[in-house]
Structure formats: structure tokens, C-alpha cells
Specification:
Layout: E1 2-3, E2 8-11, E3 20-26, E4 29-31, E5 37-40, E6 49-57, E7 63-70, E8 72-73, E9 80-83, E10 95-100, E11 107-112, E12 115-116, E13 123-126, E14 131-134, E15 144-150, E16 153-156, E17 166-176, E18 182-183, E19 188-197, E20 201-206, E21 209-213, E22 216-219, E23 228-236, E24 241-249, E25 251-252, E26 259-262, E27 267-268, E28 274-279, E29 286-291, E30 294-295, E31 302-304, E32 310-313, E33 323-328, E34 333-335, E35 343-353, E36 358-361, E37 366-375, E38 379-384, E39 387-391, E40 394-397, E41 406-414, E42 419-430, H1 436-466
Parallel strand pairs: 1-8, 18-25, 27-35, 36-42
Antiparallel strand pairs: 2-5, 3-4, 3-6, 6-7, 9-10, 10-14, 11-12, 11-15, 13-14, 15-16, 17-19, 19-22, 20-21, 20-23, 23-24, 26-28, 28-32, 29-30, 29-33, 31-32, 33-34, 35-37, 37-40, 38-39, 38-41, 41-42
Length: 535
């Protein structure tokens, strides 16, 4: 078979070709021209038929014949697909597609996504396979092609995109920024998407109330009142179907810096109970307590309330604290300032320095220092027995004497706790040393006494040795002078009446005469000087 428009050449061959005459015939109709070959360019459909070559000799008049036939057919044009429904609805509609191609004896075949279709199920081929019927059309029924062919050529249509309407389905809401909770004052945008053909219509509802149309909803400066359910409703105007999806948005007010308050400004150790309350603004605030950077849990003297915003401390101690409170929620966290407790305690752990007994030498200085642990600072009072000596933690005696020996008591009182405590130190004064000034004065006095005593002894010894000797039995008149004259008390050489006791029954002993005369008793047998220094 030859296609329309093709060129064909017929050749006639004979054994002897000299002196021959050639004629060509088409279906017994002689064609113009002659020769061994017949050339036909631009074949037409009517040139289909039998072609005969006649060869005759001019000399013998003999003729030979040879015949052949050709079929001229029209080429297949590119097929074109048409549909009865330009937008069938998925699952609902039936699509009928026709394939048309020009050409002779055209045969048709259908393909989908490059795969040849066979009749069966939802697919029906008819009209010599020119018509394809699809029942319950699907969105996957797309990119259909039709191929037209005959013995001389094959041609394929352009892909036919069957516009199937479907959806909406798989509706999704995307929130930006995507997070579990949003901080008040920030912005958020909600975008809705759905699988649908054609593109659907979108509407937004907040807690069931219409807000706006459009695929995106933008909320500027979120507030706590914006917490709720956001619904995107999607509608396909061709399929007449709708679908929806919802998302919850939580808007949280960030926590403020928490503040700790107390049930009292001060407390007495072991006696009082402390109640600390942590307060912070914000949404869904959670509280955590710490002491010295260690998280507190329930137990012992420490008790947390159900919401953890209150901390109760039973039998407060001076070592309790400082405390901090941490407030947090899903979007923020802040910690309070450190909160110390003003706990009054003591006095206790008292001591006196230096430690009792305290020994000092006569004339040295004495300093006693009393210390104790107490809040607030206590009142110090020093006592010697019941005698109140001084106040303040330090007690001092300059140049102690034997009279200062004894017990010294430090009495401490805390006027906040109402507690008091006393401690006694024993002070011992030794007589083993004197101060430099006193020692010098005593030394001078002793030397002076020795000198005076020596002079007097010499004086009286000289007078004694020079007195006249009395006759036995003669009574010595102490009032008479050696010349036999009576001397008055003022006649003595030093202007003072001096009496001398002569040895008698009690030798070595002087006796004081009557009157106001100065009397000095000397024991001549013992010339040593005795001085007893006593404080």
C-alpha cells in the first residue's frame, strides 16, 4: 500500500529489448508515455489499481505483457479527543470521550498515563474503539491519549486532561508560629488548605461565630480573649461538597516578676510559724520555691499549699532562708528577689574572754569581754554579786587590787525574744608584784626609816654612855641634870622632852612617862629594824 502523495516507479523488464515498443496501462487505460519505467509522483487515491506493461517487437509484431497492482491509502492524521462533559464530578458522573482522525482504514487504541486501556469495569470501548466511556469518573482518570493507525502510518493525540471535579477533603489548618501557646501581644496567622478541584471557598469561624472569608486569618496583638477554637469551613461550588477543620489557639499572658510577702516582719526562733506567699500575674501560673538555690519539697517543717504559692515554715530557725519563688507558665518564667527572714534568736553560745579563772597580779589591768549569739544585739550587764558594775560587752578594771578579787557575772538579755542568760568568771589577784610607782615609794620609805632609826639609836646610846654613875641605893631623878639641876621637858637639845628608861626589873623595856612628852620605846638588846609592809 502506498500513501497518498507518495511517488512510485514501475519498471518493465524483458529478455531482449532491442527494437521493442513499450506501453503502460492503468486498469486497461493506456497511460501516456512509454519506456522501460513508469514514474508516478503524488499518488492519489484514484490511482489505486492494476498497472500493465506491454512490450512489442517492431519486426516480428510479437507482444509481451506484465501486470502489478497498487493500493493508495490516505495517511492517518493526529487524532483529536473530545468529551461530553468538560468537568465531571468525581464518583458521580460518567465521561464519554471520542477520538477522531482522518485517514484510510483507521484503527483506534486508548492509553492512560502511558498504559494501554482495555475494556472492562468502569471502561467501555465502542464505535470501533473510537469512543471511550468511563463510569464513576475519578480524578486519576487523566492524561488520556488516543492512537490512530493504518498500514502506512500511526498518529497519537495530545494528552487529554480530563478535568474531574473533587473535594474538598483533607482540610488542614497551619498556625504560624507553630507553638503550644502564644504570648499575649504577639501576632499569629492561620492558613487553611484543602485538596479540591476547583479551588474551594474558605470561611473562618471563632468559637462558632463567623469571622471572615479567605484562606488566611491573621490575628494581630493576641489577647487572652483570643483563646478558643478556630474553624476553617471549605466549600466546592462545583461538587457542592463541604468540609471543615478546627484548631485550638491558647493565648497566655506572661508571668510578672513574683513578689514574696510574709505574715509578719520578724519572728522568734523556735516559737513562731512563718507563712510566705508568692504572688505573680499571668495565665496558668505555676510556683516553685527554693532555699539557698535548692528546690523545696513538702516535708518536715516546710509545707507547701496545694497551688504551691504559699510556703509555711513551722518553728522557724535562724538558718532558714533566704527564699526565692519562681513563677512560670507555658511562655515565660521569672524569679523573685531573694527574701531573707528577720529571725530573732538568742542569746546563746555565750562566753567570757579570757576564760575563767582569770588571774591578774596586783596592779595590772583587767579586761573581761562577754560575747554571745543574739539577734538583735542584746543588753549586756556586769555584776559582782548583786552589785551592778557596768553595761556593755566589755568590763575593765585599771590596776586591780586584792579587793577586786571575786566573781564577775555577765548577764545578757534579748528584749525581743524575752530570753536572758548569765555566765560568771572568777578573778584571782596575786600579791606577787607591785606597780613601778608604788614599789619606788615603798623603797624610799623603807630607806628613810632605816636612816632615822640608826640616828636615834646612836643618839640615845651616846647619852646613855655619858650619864653619871649613881651610888648604890641612890635613886636617880630623871628630872635632874648632871649638874644637879632639874631640867624641864624643853631643855632637851632637840627641843622635845625625851625620856630614857633605865634598866630596871624589866630590862630592855621602855615605859612611857606621864604627860604629853614624846615617847619612844627602844629595845636596846635588839638593834635590828623590823618593818612589816601590809596592804
Amino acid at each position: 500500500m502506498l500513501a497518498v502523495g507518495a511517488t512510485v516507479t514501475f519498471t518493465c523488464s524483458v529478455v531482449a529489448n532491442h527494437d521493442l515498443v513499450f506501453h503502460w496501462y492503468h486498469d486497461n487505460s493506456q497511460l501516456q508515455g512509454g519506456g522501460l519505467q513508469l514514474l508516478i509522483a503524488g499518488l492519489l487515491l484514484n490511482l489505486t489499481g492494476n498497472y500493465t506493461c506491454s512490450a512489442s517487437s517492431r519486426t516480428t509484431s510479437k507482444e509481451g505483457l506484465a501486470s502489478t497492482s497498487i493500493v493508495v491509502i490516505e495517511l492517518v492524521s493526529q487524532p483529536v479527543i473530545t468529551s461530553n462533559d468538560t468537568r465531571p464530578v468525581e464518583h458521580n458522573d460518567t465521561a464519554t470521550l471520542d477520538c477522531v482522525a482522518m485517514g484510510t482504514d483507521v484503527s483506534y487504541a486508548w492509553s492512560r498515563n502511558g498504559l494501554t486501556l482495555s475494556p472492562g469495569g468502569r471502561l467501555v470501548l465502542s464505535n470501533g474503539n473510537r469512543t471511550l466511556t468511563i463510569s464513576g469518573v475519578l480524578r486519576s482518570d487523566t492524561e488520556l491519549t488516543c492512537t490512530g493507525s493504518n498500514p502506512v502510518n500511526t498518529n497519537t493525540s495530545d494528552p487529554f486532561l480530563l478535568d474531574v471535579s473533587y473535594g474538598p477533603e483533607r482540610v488542614q489548618i497551619t498556625v504560624s508560629p507553630e507553638q503550644a501557646a502564644h504570648t499575649s501581644g504577639t501576632d499569629a496567622s492561620l492558613t487553611c488548605s484543602a485538596v479540591s478541584n476547583p479551588a474551594p471557598e474558605y470561611q473562618w469561624l471563632f468559637n462558632g461565630l463567623f469571622q471572615q472569608s479567605g484562606q488566611q486569618l491573621v490575628i494581630a496583638a493576641l489577647g487572652v480573649n483570643d483563646t478558643g477554637s478556630y474553624t476553617c469551613q471549605v466549600f466546592n461550588n462545583v461538587t457542592k461538597r463541604s468540609s471543615s477543620s478546627s484548631r485550638n489557639i491558647t493565648v497566655i499572658e506572661p508571668v510578672s516578676t513574683p513578689k514574696i510577702t510574709s505574715n509578719a516582719s520578724s519572728f522568734i526562733e523556735h516559737n513562731d510559724t512563718v507563712v510566705l506567699t508568692c504572688v505573680a500575674t499571668g495565665t496558668d501560673v505555676s510556683y516553685t520555691w527554693s532555699e539557698d538555690n535548692s528546690v523545696i519539697s513538702n516535708g518536715g517543717r516546710l509545707e507547701l499549699s496545694a497551688s504551691n504559692n504559699t510556703l509555711t515554715i513551722t518553728g522557724v530557725l535562724r538558718s532558714d532562708g533566704p527564699f526565692t519563688c519562681r513563677a512560670s507558665n507555658a511562655v515565660s518564667a521569672k524569679t523573685s528577689d531573694s527574701f531573707p527572714l528577720n529571725v530573732y534568736y538568742g542569746p546563746d553560745n555565750m562566753k567570757i574572754t579570757p576564760q575563767s579563772p582569770v588571774t591578774r597580779t596586783n596592779g595590772e589591768d583587767l579586761t573581761l569581754t562577754c560575747s554571745t549569739q543574739s539577734m538583735p544585739s542584746p543588753v549586756y550587764e556586769w555584776l559582782n554579786g548583786t552589785e551592778r558594775l557596768s553595761t556593755g560587752p566589755v568590763f575593765t578594771i585599771s590596776s586591780v587590787s586584792m579587793d577586786d578579787e571575786g566573781n564577775y557575772t555577765c548577764h545578757v538579755n534579748n528584749n525581743k525574744t524575752g530570753r536572758n542568760i548569765s555566765l560568771t568568771a572568777k578573778v584571782i589577784v596575786q600579791n606577787g608584784g607591785l606597780g613601778a610607782g608604788k614599789f619606788a615609794g615603798i623603797a624610799v620609805g623603807v630607806i628613810f626609816g632605816v636612816i632615822v632609826s640608826s640616828v636615834l639609836i646612836c643618839y640615845f646610846m651616846r647619852k646613855y654612855m655619858n650619864r653619871p654613875k649613881a651610888e648604890p641605893g641612890t635613886k636617880y631623878d630623871a628630872n635632874r641634870s648632871p649638874r644637879g639641876q632639874t631640867a624641864s621637858a624643853t631643855d632637851s637639845e632637840d627641843g622635845l622632852a625625851t625620856y630614857e628608861n633605865l634598866p630596871g626589873k624589866d630590862q630592855g623595856t621602855t615605859h612611857a612617862p606621864e604627860g604629853d612628852a614624846t615617847y619612844m620605846g627602844l629595845k636596846l638588846d635588839d638593834r635590828s629594824v623590823y618593818s612589816e609592809l601590809r596592804r
